[in-house]
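Researcher: Next entry in the queue.
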Amino acid sequence: MIKCLPWDEVEKAIYKEQKWIKRNIEPSPYSDKSSPITCPDCLRRRIAILIVSGKIKVKKIKSPNLWDGFDFEKNKRKKHGHDWHNNMMNIIARHFEKQDYGVDYEPNLNYGNADLLVYNKKDKNEKNIYVEVGTVSLYKLLYNLETMKNVDFLIVPTGDYLIEFCI
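Model: Structure for this entry, 167 residues:
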């Protein structure tokens, strides 16, 4: 038997997730003109509903030693920008390549492109990981979370933490 929660408890849970998303995922400063939803709070709410409903799982992983080759002390004040973004993409790619994973740059998603695709070269049944470095289009994230199956998304806002979405 499925236990139904009172609507106010569900709304509190959704609101809590929305606040968490707002604190941890920085939306892209570039407008997505093809997005039918332009309200950032509305997009965060839809993502929060996916989390609260159990359709996706999300966790934040924080450590100054996440990536081989990333000097946290040197880079903690530098965040975003073209050079930072490219440097982080290369650090993340090398991190996975050292573990014998394949890495593709700018792979297609159901909507848009990710920065990286990480895949197991030996086991095609293992989930693919799509990586977004820095800011992310909330609409692109929502659309792909809703339409893609059996993949993970890593959002890497800074060098010392990442957010993992498991579908």
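Model: Residues 7-24 form the longest helix (18 residues).
Researcher: Noted, moving on.
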